[in-house]
Specification:
Organism: Arabidopsis thaliana
CATH architecture of the domain at 1-146: 3-Layer(aba) Sandwich
Protein name: Disease resistance protein (CC-NBS-LRR class) family
GO molecular function, one term: ATP binding
Radius of gyration: 29 Å
Mean pLDDT: 87
Low-confidence stretches: 568-575, 687-691
CATH topology of the domain at 1-146: Rossmann fold
Distance between the termini: 17 Å
InterPro entries: Apaf_helical, Disease_R_plants, Leu-rich_rpt, LRR_dom_sf, NB-ARC, P-loop_NTPase, WH-like_DNA-bd_sf, WHD_DRP
Strand content: 15-25%
Family: Belongs to the disease resistance NB-LRR family.
CATH superfamily of the domain at 1-146: P-loop containing nucleotide triphosphate hydrolases
Number of helices: 21
Helix content: 25-40%
CATH class of the domain at 1-146: Alpha Beta
Length: about 700
């Protein structure tokens, strides 16, 4: 990494280099190595100046450090900032210098400090470290470099150095246990160093086993974690300007370690918890949510997932978040966060009266027979368990609960009638459950605005939902047994506040009809066409302007046509592409009829494409059809420019993906199986220059 940074900095055209990364990742160490490299051989430079900026340091503090490094130690208290800038500028103007700024938290006005402009003639350089990529952009650097956590082998090497040879050689089992401890640091050099040093005196197997237990259960209780690691990381949290953004960040700690959560799901939780204004229109609230996620990623408090639709939290950052959320360990009873720890029952040691948020997701809990008095509980996450039964009394005394997630409990077929006692409930997720009907008492949930019934294969009907739940804003029926028909369309029109609809449709006539009902079709974000039989279907990109996810399953459709005219208003006049603006996921399974899927050219923002077991498809993009589309719509040129995931499986007749294999600069996963007629050359795409 030192070599990369040095080579980048030594380019003639390079003037400024920003090194960015999360707290504790080793940015200062890297900058110090660059400093030492300059000092070993000045490489034609007259001066190397190191300045520690830190979060609250003002311009004058930076000036005084520079003046000190220039050997000007006279008293500067009575000299104005402008006069100091003049002194500095006069000296640096006749020098070839390197200015190293450690720990920038925001843009620094170098001119006000007295640093003269960098030019090819003077050959001077500036390198700085920061936790935020935004600072690199604000400083208008001409080179930036991300400092990542260490890969496993290098992390283990660093950990061994900090522990030392004596403990590692004191028992044959300790190296294996030590590797487990090192893995808990997730490659973060700060954690590897602090925990490694703390383990340097532990020479028995029992001591190492105890440490593993502590790190697995309550990492913040590990010696030095609270004193040396978490406070350092907390600076990034403190730097978040908005209290609501801080709440959004802390909420992310409810998920298991290394868990990738969908951005949309996070935003939905935040809206119902009140962190984001749910009264905004859907785009406004959604955009705000994505802006918050972006700011947390740029601050290295969240990380992008394998696909850009998801984010995750570094394990050490998660420990910090749990520590902060429990008021720095002083109010642990307000949280019960035990996801993915193989629980078979709800823990008995919970202080229900103090509890604010509870996450028992990804466990093995089958039955909930206890009752609870939890007046302050606002979020309860029970998804991905093995739930079969929930007792009548469990929900009876949770008056403040606003978020309830029971999804991915496939054996859960019914809900207790006492769910009606959840008078504050705004969000309930029942997707991928065995729910057969909604309780009659559901009508008492007057504040419910978000109902997720996706992938509910046993659900028989939601007749009467508009009168029972008139305040619904989000209704999700994607890939559900409940399909949109004429009567359900009429009922959905009664939901005056509906903003988001995901739907399953079997009848081609209903598909055509719903695209003519502006108030319904404009709210559709995901659409599943299941068991549909029709010679031709038409998808209108104007009507389906909000469509993000399209799935076609078990259908016989000879041709899929794209229409970009607004019904009754003539052709849509626009300077941009006439395609789907938001369609990012297309999944096609067992589709019979079409030979190609050239219509996908109208999905220029596609990020995920899966085509499986569709035996008539010979190519994804056909040359003649593709060129006829691009001739009419010049904006549609390169297919799949944003694609991250491509899967083609069980396509017996597939001969090519595209006549001219496009560059796929963002492709992260490519899965090809059982496509016997697809030549190997057809799966070789031009690589992006940065790959």
């Amino acid at each position: 990494m030192v070599g990369r940074a040095w080579n980048s900095l030594m380019k003639d055209e390079r003037r400024t280099l920003g090194l960015y990364g999360m707290g504790g990742v080793g940015k200062t160490t890297l900058l110090a190595s660059i400093n030492n490299k300059f000092l070993e051989g000045m490489n034609g430079f007259d001066l190397v100046i190191w300045v520690v900026v830190s979060k609250d340091l003002q311009n004058e503090g930076i000036q005084e450090q520079i003046l000190g490094r220039l050997g000007l130690h006279r008293g500067w208290k009575q000299v104005t900032e402008k006069e100091k800038a003049s002194y500095i500028c006069n000296i640096l103007n006749v020098k070839k210098f390197v200015l190293l700024l450690d720990d920038l938290w925001s843009e620094v006005d170098l001119e006000k400090i007295g640093v003269p402009p960098l030019t090819r003639e003077n050959g001077s350089k500036i390198v700085f470290t920061t936790r935020s990529k935004d600072v690199c952009r604000d400083m208008e650097v001409d080179g930036e470099m991300k400092v990542d956590c260490l890969p496993p082998d290098e992390a283990w090497e660093l950990f061994q150095k900090k522990v030392g040879p004596i403990p590692l050689q004191s028992h044959e089992d300790i190296p294996t246990l030590a590797r487990k401890v090192a893995e808990k640091c997730c490659g973060l050099p700060l954690a590897l160093s602090v925990i490694g040093k703390a383990m340097a005196s532990r020479e028995t197997v029992q001591e190492w086993q105890h440490v593993i237990h502590v790190l697995n259960s309550s990492s913040h209780e590990f010696p030095s974690m609270e004193e040396k690691i978490l406070p350092v990381l907390k600076f990034s949290y403190d730097d978040l300007k908005d209290e609501k953004v801080k709440l959004c960040f802390l909420y992310c700690s409810l998920f298991p370690e290394d868990y990738e959560v969908r951005k949309e799901e996070l935003i939905e939780y935040w809206m119902c918890e009140g962190f984001i204004d749910g009264n905004e229109d859907e785009d406004g609230a959604n955009n705000k949510g994505h802006d918050i996620i972006g700011s947390l990623v740029r601050a290295h408090l969240l990380m992008d997932g394998e696909l850009t639709t998801k984010v995750k939290m570094h394990d050490v950052i998660r420990e910090m978040a749990l520590w902060i959320a429990s008021n720095f360990g002083k109010q642990k009873e307000t949280l019960c966060v035990k996801p993915g720890v193989q629980l078979c029952h709800i823990p008995k040691d919970i202080n229900w009266e103090s509890l604010r948020r509870m996450s028992l997701m990804c466990n093995q809990i089958a039955n909930i027979s206890s009752s609870s008095n939890s007046p302050n509980l606002s979020t309860l996450l029970l998804q991905n368990n093995k739930l079969v039964h929930i007792s009548c009394d469990f929900f009876r005394f949770m008056p403040a609960l606003v978020v309830l997630d029971l999804s991915r409990n496939s054996s859960l077929s019914s809900l207790p009638e006492a769910i009606s006692k959840l008078g504050s409930l705004q969000y309930i997720n029942l997707s991928t459950t065995g729910i057969k009907w909604l309780p009659v008492s559901f009508k008492e949930l007057k504040k419910l605005i978000h109902l997720n019934l996706e992938f509910t294969d046993e659900l028989e009907s939601i007749v009467g939902i508009a009168t029972s739940l008139p305040n619904l804003q989000v209704l999700k029926l994607f890939s559900s047994r409940v399909c949109i028909d004429g009567s359900l369309m009429e009922e959905l029109l009664l939901l005056e506040h509906l903003k988001v609809l995901t739907a399953t449709i079997k009848d081609a006539l209903i598909l055509e009809s719903i695209q003519g009902v502006d108030r319904l079709v404009s709210s559709i974000q995901a659409l599943c066409l299941r068991n549909m039989s029709a010679p031709v279907i038409i998808l209108n990109t104007v009507a389906l302007g909000g469509l993000q996810h399209l799935e076609i399953v078990g259908s016989k459709i000879s041709e899929i046509k794209i229409d970009w005219e607004r019904k009754g208003r003539g052709e849509l006049k626009c300077t941009s592409s006439p395609g789907f603006k938001h369609l990012s996921v297309v999944e096609i399974f067992n589709l019979e009829g079409p030979r190609d899927l050239t219509w996908l050219l109208f999905a220029q923002n596609l990020r995920r494409l899966s085509v499986t077991l569709s035996l008539t498809i010979e190519e994804i993009i056909n040359k003649e059809k593709g060129m006829s589309i691009t001739n009419v719509h010049p904006n549609i040129v390169v297919p799949f420019g944003k694609l991250e995931f491509l899967e083609v499986r069980g396509l017996d007749e597939l001969k090519r993906i595209c006549w001219n294999p496009p560059a796929l600069p963002n492709l992260r996963q490519f899965d090809v199986r059982s496509c016997l007629k697809l030549p190997e050359a057809a799966t070789e795409f031009p690589r992006h220059a940065n790959e």
